[in-house]
């Protein structure tokens, strides 16, 4: 597989293309650094509102005509506003590249942002925010991340009730003009298109796109502590967050393999020790997460009030036991699991476009699958055990959501 080639256009837009001559289709991922971390104070949720409002018409078309224009070209598309950025993704036949980019140019440069659609967009966002009450694990982790980060990285990507209610069409139009632009944005393409053709098409459609690149604050974290969240329920949600190494660190894949040992399948430590042997939980897992400039390992367990104390103790003990080392068999199983996941992801042009854009955002360069596989293969038992002994997972931020008054004070 050819490695993606990149070029920065005169307006600051970064274009990356991974050519797949055998592929009749193209997958696109446009990453705009417009997320909750840069929402204006008092307008938390602005990025979320803007992403929904964009599709209510553009280039002289109303919302229905815009949707039909995409459908006429056979475009499968999606978009989302997140903590750090907004993404616009699409898949289409390679022959439609120029026409598809022209439609996206209308959305980005000539959006209608109609006043009569604004309240509908706000109500959808408010419902999304309210849905947290029906998703206890998500509610718990949302509160835990807010407790971990003193910087805006602890914000809920959906926004806040106060921010969504305070938003006005005028304020959001001004925010769109300030944050939506070419500088700092990344357009990744994977499929049957060359860099030369893509660059010509992008310059013809998005070459006059200007603005963007708002300053992003650096992540700032608090001291680890415990958060108790009262919620009348028959279940208790437990969450842990441990500092970890970020992408680009020499031991990044060492840490990823350690996470696989913990939670890489039904034979992994957390599932076996916490659920299968002791029957403490109905769900348990650990996964690597993070933001640009700060990464962490999160762990989750869902249990009952009666089992909460033991669950938390065993969950922490299993994670901290990594410092005592992993076996060669565990490491090999983790390698197979991680490589399988990566290979399956990279087989899809859609997933590849997403990976390219994310690599450029986080690292400023694109990694090949061969580079990643080599980094995983280089981790042997001696290396991972040396790393885990020197970098134990200890002293996490902790969140407990449930009937706190029924849970012993030691939690």
TrEMBL record:
EC number: 3.4.24.-
Pfam family, one: Peptidase_M16
Gene3D superfamilies: Metalloenzyme, LuxS/M16 peptidase-like (3.30.830.10)
GO molecular function, one term: metal ion binding
GO biological process, one term: proteolysis
InterPro entries reported in the protein's UniProt record: Metalloenz_LuxS/M16, MPP/UQCRC_Complex, Pept_M16_N, Peptidase_M16_C
Domain Peptidase M16 N-terminal: 16-150
Ranges of residues in domain Peptidase M16 C-terminal: 168-335
Xref: SUPFAM superfamilies: LuxS/MPP-like metallohydrolase
Domain of life: Bacteria
Protein name, per record: Putative zinc protease
């Amino acid at each position: 597989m050819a490695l993606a080639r990149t070029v920065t256009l005169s307006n600051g837009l970064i274009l990356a293309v991974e050519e797949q001559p055998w592929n009749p289709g193209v997958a696109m991922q446009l990453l705009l650094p417009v997320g909750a971390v840069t929402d204006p104070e008092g307008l938390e949720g602005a990025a979320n509102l803007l992403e929904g409002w964009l599709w209510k018409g553009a280039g002289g078309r109303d919302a229905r005509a815009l949707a039909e224009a995409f459908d006429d070209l056979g475009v499968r598309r999606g978009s989302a506003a997140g903590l750090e950025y907004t993404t616009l993704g699409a898949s289409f036949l390679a022959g439609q590249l120029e026409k598809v980019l022209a439609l996206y140019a209308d959305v980005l440069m000539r959006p209608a942002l109609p006043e009569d659609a604004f309240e509908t967009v706000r109500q959808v966002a408010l419902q999304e925010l309210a849905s947290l009450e029906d998703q206890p694990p998500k509610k718990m982790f949302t509160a835990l991340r807010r407790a971990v980060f003193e910087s805006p990285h602890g914000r809920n990507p959906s926004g806040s009730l106060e921010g969504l209610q305070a938003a006005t069409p005028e304020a959001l139009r001004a925010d769109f003009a300030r944050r939506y632009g070419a500088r700092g944005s990344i357009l990744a393409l994977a499929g049957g298109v060359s860099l030369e053709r893509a660059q010509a098409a992008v310059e013809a459609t998005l070459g006059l796109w200007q603005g963007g690149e708002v300053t992003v604050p650096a992540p700032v974290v608090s001291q680890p502590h415990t958060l108790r969240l009262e919620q009348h329920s028959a279940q208790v949600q437990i969450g842990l967050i441990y500092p970890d190494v970020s992408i680009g660190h020499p031991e990044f894949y060492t840490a990823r393999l350690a996470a696989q040992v913990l939670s890489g399948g039904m034979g992994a430590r957390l599932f076996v020790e916490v659920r299968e042997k002791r029957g403490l939980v109905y769900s348990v897992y650990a996964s690597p997460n993070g933001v640009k400039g700060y990464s962490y390992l999160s762990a989750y367990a869902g249990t009952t009030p009666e089992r909460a104390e033991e669950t938390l103790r065993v969950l922490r003990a299993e994670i901290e036991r990594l410092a005592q080392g992993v076996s060669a068999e565990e490491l090999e199983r983790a390698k197979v699991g991680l490589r399988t996941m990566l290979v399956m992801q990279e087989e899809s042009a859609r997933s590849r476009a997403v990976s390219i854009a994310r690599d450029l955002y986080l690292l400023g360069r694109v990694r090949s699958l061969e580079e990643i596989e080599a980094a995983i293969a280089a981790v042997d038992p001696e290396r991972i055990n040396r790393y885990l002994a020197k970098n134990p997972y200890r002293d996490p931020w902790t969140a407990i959501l449930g009937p706190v008054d029924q849970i012993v004070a030691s939690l």
